[in-house]
């Protein structure tokens, strides 16, 4: 398998894992864990696990230039942390369907940044794939209650922008640093930022009273954050930011299917059309024209 194709498989795998977050978060909520507190535990667990691994494998991966710290501030705070906070707040004031639709405006933001900052070519194939992916996400989200406020609109768009910015900051960082370095420092900065939202008095007793929660939360953090961000960042190294963002639109498809299977949520005919639209966009990106083959 060619490097670019392997990268797309990695990005799809990451999106699949992210698509399970809603289902797993609901499970942890029944145990008493607040979604905002989980942002901190996801970030801290990822940073600590990567630190141990890097110390064993190659300590030189911890070296970064001070003048490059702004990149990780962007990927960790502006992207991961603010995207998650804005999305959680968006869910609180919008319907779930609207929040999901606004979140998946992210490929549009990536397209704008990629063309302006990286001078990526915006071909007809990419344009069609972009329209299919965004339209597919909208259709997958239909079936739920459509409710939005002005505050909710701004929060939803902010979540989409934050989601998009990981591809942008990640692309910049990967020009200078290893995938492990980029992922590690992203979550060092996001851990520091997430201290502002974690509710220790509420969450720490949950670990003390029920020690079995520790491995559950740890596994959740590894599955929802450590593995997918490593895979996505590695896939981003061999694909453009726009292609990566379009492929990652498989995430709401996974979430919708799991909602249908696990929680018996409605999956409308329009939702099924949306699923095939997203999958069609990914297949389209894999097709090679004559010029590309040459």
Please tag this protein with its features.
294 residues, mainly alpha, 15 helices, 78% helix, disordered C terminus
Plain-language structure description:
This protein has 294 residues and is an all-alpha fold. The chain has one domain (3-288). 78% of the residues lie in helices and 0% in strands. Helix 3 crosses helix 11, helix 7 runs parallel beside helix 13 (250-262) and helix 9 (179-194) packs across helix 11 (213-236). The longest helix has 25 residues, at 69-93. The two termini are 18 Å apart. Mean pLDDT is 86; it is low at 289-294.
What would you say about this model in short?
Helix content is 78%, strand content 0%. With 294 residues, it is mainly alpha-helical.
Quick one: overall form?
A: globular
Profile the largest sheet: none
Distance between the termini: 18 Å
**pLDDT below 50 for ≥5 consecutive residues: which ranges?**
289-294
How much is the radius of gyration in Å? 19 Å
How many β-strands, per DSSP? 0
- Encode the helix/strand succession as letters: HHHHHHHHHHHHHHH
Question: What percentage of residues falls in helices of 4 or more residues?
Answer: over 70%
Mean pLDDT: 86
What amount of the residues lies in strands? under 5%
Compile the SSE list and pairings.
Elements: H1 3-19, H2 21-29, H3 35-57, H4 69-93, H5 96-103, H6 106-117, H7 124-141, H8 150-174, H9 179-194, H10 200-209, H11 213-236, H12 241-247, H13 250-262, H14 269-286, H15 290-293
């Amino acid at each position: 398998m060619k490097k670019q194709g392997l990268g797309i498989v990695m990005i799809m795998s990451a999106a699949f894992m992210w698509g399970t977050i809603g289902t797993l978060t609901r499970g942890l909520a029944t145990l008493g864990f607040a979604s905002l507190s989980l942002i901190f535990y996801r970030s801290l667990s990822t940073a600590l696990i990567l630190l141990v691994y890097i110390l064993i494998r190659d300590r030189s991966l911890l070296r970064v230039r001070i003048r490059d710290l702004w990149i990780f501030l962007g990927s960790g705070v502006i992207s991961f942390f603010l995207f998650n906070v804005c999305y959680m707040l968006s869910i609180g004031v919008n319907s779930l369907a609207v929040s999901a639709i606004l979140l998946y405006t992210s490929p549009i933001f990536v397209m704008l940044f990629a063309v302006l900052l990286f001078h990526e070519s915006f071909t007809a194939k990419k344009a069609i794939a972009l329209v299919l992916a965004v339209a597919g996400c909208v259709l997958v989200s239909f079936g739920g209650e459509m409710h939005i406020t002005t505050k909710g609109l701004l929060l939803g768009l902010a979540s989409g922008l934050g989601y998009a910015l990981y591809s942008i900051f990640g692309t910049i960082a990967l020009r200078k640093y290893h995938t492990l370095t980029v992922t590690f420092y992203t979550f060092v900065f996001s851990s520091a930022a997430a201290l502002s939202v974690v509710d220790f008095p509420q969450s720490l007793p949950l670990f003390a009273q029920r020690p079995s929660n520790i491995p559950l939360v740890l596994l959740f953090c590894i599955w929802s954050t450590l593995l997918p961000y490593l895979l996505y960042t590695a896939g981003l190294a061999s694909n453009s930011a726009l292609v990566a963002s379009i492929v990652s639109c498989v995430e709401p498809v996974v979430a919708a299917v799991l909602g249908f299977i696990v929680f018996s949520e409605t999956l409308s005919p329009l939702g099924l059309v949306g699923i095939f639209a997203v999958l069609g966009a990914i297949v389209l990106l894999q097709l090679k024209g004559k010029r590309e083959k040459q």
